[in-house]
Amino acid sequence: MKDQHNLYERQYAKAKETLKTLEKQKSEIDFKLDSDPICSHLHKELRTVNLDIKITLNEIEHVESHIFKCEV
């Protein structure tokens, strides 16, 4: 059980790191869109990053629930 808890903790840390990276990418794209608001390439990148952020948030929520179960 301790090994699973450690695995979930590592997954959680990695997901948080990924989320931080994705949010940085999103802010960079938003900044670029301020100067070129009709660039289709940037809008496509933004949609992709937003989807990746949602997936990562779901992963974080899932791992948090497993961590909670291990602690109880």
What amount of the residues lies in strands? Answer: under 5%
Task: Tally the structural domains.
Answer: 1
Distance between the termini: 11 Å
Characterize the largest beta sheet: strand count, sense, and whether it forms a barrel.
none
**Low-confidence region ranges:** none
Shape: rod-shaped
What's the alpha carbon Rg, rounded to whole Å?
16 Å
Mean pLDDT: 94
Which sequence of SSEs, written as H and E, runs from N to C? HH
Number of strands: 0
Counting DSSP H or I runs of 4 or more residues, the number of helices is 2
Judged by helices, strands and strand pairing, the structural class is: mainly alpha
- Work out the helicity level: over 70%
Keywords: Coiled coil
What's the short version?
Helix content is 92%, strand content 0%. It has two helices and no strands.
Task: Record keyword descriptors for this entry.
single chain, 72 residues, mainly alpha, 2 helices, 92% helix
